[in-house]
Write a structure and sequence with these properties.
This protein is an alpha/beta fold. It folds into two domains: 2-46; 58-267, Alpha-Beta Barrel (TIM Barrel), CATH 3.20.20. It has helices spanning 2-18, 21-46, 71-80, 108-118, 128-133, 135-143, 163-181, 197-205, 228-237, 252-267, and strands spanning 56-57, 85-86, 96-101, 123-126, 147-150, 187-188, 194-195, 209-211, 215-216, 244-248. It has a five-stranded parallel beta sheet. α9 (228-237) links the parallel β9 (215-216) and β10.
Length: 273
């Protein structure tokens, strides 16, 4: 922009020097108006469009491609990947198990035992209250090589927050985990899967990748757990390259079937991260 302005000013004075004294003032004024118009047009073309604050609720949907991958997850990547967000891993064919840790229901240790036995590394997305109340489990996750992710301090709807509020929700938990566990988180799952372009961008500015999922099922109601046989078939049948599974550690069914699910997915030729 500065180079354009400089070149334009030079042209103005060059034109003025070629004209007689009576004409020079009019030439300069006309040329200056042209420069202003040019700069306004260039500025309009180069200005980034404002990011939307519209709330979106994510879901992978039921439509699948010929590789058993949810098209909703692929569409999310295509639309929001430039904002540091993903719902399926298109650069790594391995499957990733992720667990949302809203509160402890007595099954996480068993889940960790199974993951250790099967040599699988998972990702655990923590809220602030969980990190504060369950330090031994968080410490074990880290020591056993799992990824600890940020699920925000207070579990709010991210697209309803200002930039400062987003920063507080993310960095309060970030700083707590870094201080008490010596671990620096880099992945975030927005509560309830709710996001906006603006919230994704603000999260990215904080050094975080937003990670959603390409498979989830109704496993979080502790008094209405899915049948283990049904759940096992569903989880194994959903396997696809680059899958990100969303599971809840409060689920007794998940704790019971996890080992068989891992074995079943491996039997189909997939491997885990």
């Amino acid at each position: 922009m500065n180079k354009l302005l400089t070149a334009s000013v030079i042209c103005i004075f060059a034109l003025a020097s070629l004209a007689d004294r009576e004409q020079s003032s009019a030439i300069v004024d006309k040329a200056a108006d042209g420069v202003k118009s040019m700069i306004a047009q260039v500025s309009e073309l180069t200005q980034a469009p404002a990011l939307s604050h519209e709330k979106n609720g994510y879901g992978q949907g039921v439509l699948l491609d010929d590789q058993n991958r949810p098209t909703g997850a692929l569409d999310f990547n295509a639309k929001y990947g430039q904002l540091g967000a993903m719902a399926i891993n298109e650069s790594d064919k391995r499957i990733e198990l992720t667990f949302d840790q809203g509160y402890e229901n007595g099954y996480t240790a068993r889940i960790l035992d199974t993951l250790k036995e099967k040599n699988v590394k998972a990702t655990f997305f923590l809220v602030g209250d969980y990190a504060e109340k369950n330090p031994e489990l968080v410490k074990r996750m880290i020591e056993e090589g799992h990824t600890v992710g940020n699920h925000t301090q207070n579990h709010p709807s991210m697209p309803t927050l200002t930039a400062d509020e987003i920063k507080a929700e993310v960095m309060t938990l970030h700083d707590y985990v870094k201080k008490h566990f010596g671990y620096e988180m880099t992945e975030l799952r927005p509560p309830m899967g709710e996001f906006s372009e603006f919230s994704l961008d603000e999260t990215s500015k904080l050094g975080y990748t937003t990670k959603l999922w390409s498979f989830a099922y109704k496993d979080w109601l502790t008094d209405d757990q899915p049948d283990p046989a049904y759940a096992k078939d569903k989880l194994i049948g959903a396997a696809h390259e680059g899958a990100i599974y969303l599971l809840h550690s409060v689920s007794s069914t998940n704790a019971e079937i996890l080992g068989d699910v891992i074995d079943g997915i491996r039997a189909k030729g997939f491997e885990f991260r």
